[in-house]
Amino acid sequence: MTTLGTRTVAAGEKVDFTIYYSRYPSDFNDVPVACLSGWKLSPAVATLAKDRRSLTVAATARAGTIFTLTFRYRGTSHVQKFEVIDPVRSPLTGFWTQENVAACPADQQVYDLVFNRDGSFGLMFGPNIGYRKDLTGNWRVDGDRVILSNIAGEKPADFNGEARFTLGADGGLTFDRPLAGTQGARGTCSAPFRKVR
Hints:
Largest sheet: 8 strands, antiparallel
Shape: elongated
Radius of gyration: 20 Å
Number of helices: 0
Number of strands: 17
Strand content: over 45%
């Protein structure tokens, strides 16, 4: 049996998915639904679509509920876990970056700033060869301030974890100070972040 990790969902949400196999990183090959069998949701807090390409979480599902979707491919069972959350509702939720902005050299940019809807965040200063987040933790919004807490990772000496934010007419996100502090030149770019997704 292969466990595929945990995906967060909200009550009443429709979740589209595609099953694929990979022989190496960045190799994605869709698996035809006809090649899959043994579909099972447990417990039954969601409904699987007849085309097996989506599921819908019950509107009454409570935050903290965990359920699994099991299917078989080439004789092996695979399990995808789902956790029902009460999602953070904020325009900041999503994946932001300063990568490739003309205003700052690469060693000043923040490559990844991810505000997850489950209240967690991740930040990666650029450039980062290892593609691992430098800081992770939790985030929340209070008025026009974003506040970071429960930080894991090596915090810069000038880490504050709080900044006022502005969303421009073009969708760009700016802070009144480096949100996570600076590491030498890293994190000093003041150019707006653009939302990737």
